[in-house]
Amino acid sequence: MDNIALSLAMLLAIALIGGAVWQWRRSGPDRNVWLMLVLAAVVLANVAIWVIPDRNGVAPVDRAAAGPG
Predict the structure, then answer these.
(1) Which end of the chain is more exposed for a tag (fewer CB within 10 A), N or C?
(2) Separation between Cα atoms, residue 46 and residue 16, nearest integer Å
(3) Contact at 8 Å (CB) between 42 and 1?
(4) For the purposes of burial, counting CB atoms within 10 Å of the CB of 36, is it exposed (0-12), middle (13-18) or buried (19 or more)?
């Protein structure tokens, strides 16, 4: 389940960046473009938090998948 959520988050970030580029070319840099880019950065930061391993070499997503204990 965690892998599906992370995959959807990555797809969302790609779509947001693509939408921001499309909007920029269509009407220039306005508030919606910057908001989409900020949201994409937040989503990418959240994905990075979940997949980057700690000092022991275990990523939080792997620890969560292993269950409690």
Answers:
(1) C
(2) 15
(3) no
(4) buried
Strands (E), the chain: none
Q: ∠10-13-17 over CA atoms, to 5°? A: 145
pTM of the model: 0.85
The pLDDT score that the predictor gives to residue 69 is 63
Structure tokens at 2: 């965690």
- Is the separation of the CB atoms in 59 and 53 below 8 Å? yes
pLDDT score recorded for residue 37: 97
